[in-house]
Amino acid sequence: MQTASELRDLLARIDRRGYPAYKETRGMYRFPDYLLSIDHVQGDPFAAPSRLSIRVSGAKAGFPPSLYRLPCQRVALQDALTRRFGALTAKASFQAKGSGHSGLIGVSRCGQQVLERTACTLDPDSGELTMRLEVGFPANGRTINARELEKILFDLLPGCVRGALLYASLDAGQLRAVADLAEDQQAIRQALPELGLCAFVADGSILPRASGVSDLPMKGAVPFRTPPERKVELTLPHRGKLTGMGIPRGVTLIVGGGYHGKSTLLRALELGVYNHIAGDGREYVITDDTAVKVRAEDGRSICNTDISLFIRNLPNGKDTVHFTTQDASGSTSQAANVVEAMEAGSRLLLMDEDTSATNFMVRDELMQRVIRRDKEPITPFLERVRELYERFGVSTILVAGSSGAFFRVADHIIQMDNYVPREITRLAKEEAARDPDRRDKPEPADPPRFDRSPMPSPEFRKGERVKLKTMGRDGVSLNRESVDLRAVEQLTDAEQTAALGYSLLYAQRCLMDGKKSVRQLAGELERLLEQRGLAALCESPGNIAALARPRKQEILACLNRYRGLRV
Ligand code: ADP
Ligand code: MG
User: Smallest Cα–Cα separation from 535: which of 129, 109, 117, 122?
Assistant: First the structure.
């Protein structure tokens, strides 16, 4: 541990030397309010910026433990501090000048969801706060400009820390509201199973977003209004009484004309597995947090997945209990996505006909009469959806605007009408009953098997250099083998995707042994994140990447899409 003035002296010494001399700054320095740790120094001004962390002791930070009594409150507080610190550093960024990334001060950008991140961690026992950030060490060309780094470390950053990380300088009421909202959201989540619900949408929620590229709430949107038959009243610890629509477990259909808001409701439910920040409009849209959005995904890799629940007797004789392909069709990919959601312990499937394979979803009676069952490998989802619920406890919420076939198998039917939901179960069921049901029923299926156990690949042995790259939110690659995650629609942040890349590597290096199943691997990764935090995924404790926590469902989705999986 060195003092801040020793750092100042060091900077004076290396000023105007070649850029690599910056490496000497690595280490820990005591500043008046905090410890500054220079964890990783970039190789040149154009490379990825240097990584720093700031540690404020519990006594100095001064956050009252009542703000982070519950884990969900701690995550919400960390999120709020990251946003505040990010706003202040954004103003300070590039005030110091130079070539390449010189002067950049970067902090994880948070979207509308509240996620656990390596960016900020608050130790629940000591109250110690750690904030991680990136700084572009300034240079002119490739010559160190230490005066500018001095400006960042001694003028700009201390101001950001004082303005964002010390309780005394923050708005206490606002922080209390953050903690209270998190507790209320958790109360709704915990109430769902007791009420037999798989989702809740509060009256007044704003579901649509400003645009296809903005996750902010739409201005002037029609607020959500619960149909009287579906009204549920909750009493939350802080907000008190809150009414909204409860979606019961079972099979729920969302129908309605085109453009009436069906997909928008489903999208809000998909993201209801996360908590949202105040002002988002979806603060009280809470979905069973094991829910998985399932869609068709042509071209995905499927590795030894049991899709026999939906597909068997392929004309080429291909085994569908151990189904493998490098290039799945619409229907096989959607079948695998359903089964893998079950593998991930999902209790709720979310589907939209807009993104489904038609032949996976339904086969109408006329087609059934012309093409006999023994000539059709696919048992459509329509014929399995009740079994999924009754035998496997997996509910479904399905948007189906074009096929009435699902009326017969649904427990609840909601019509979206000019963005307002109406309860039409009775009406639709009566209409369906007028139509004689001539379909023959499929045989009950064997429960899918989840026992594939991958071997680790030698290229990832400890000590081997591995290239891990993230393509934004959409994918990761390990040594050039890329995993396409675009169809994993509940991933909401590029830092989650990065965490999936690290999880995959961790599983290769430390967990896979040819005996543990993919499901067990995902379970062990989930436990690791729960017990030791996201930083445990990074090999060097001194160089922690910017990661956000993915759910077990996404961890499994990533493992299952990895083309290098050796099973
Ligand atoms: P559907 O799936 O029924 O065809 P969408 O959910 O795609 O309809 O919605 C159609 C359009 O209406 C979208 O542009 C969406 O942003 C907008 N929209 C959805 N819900 C609302 C609402 N509550 N208020 C205003 N506009 C909305
Ligand atoms: Mg739609």
Answer: 117
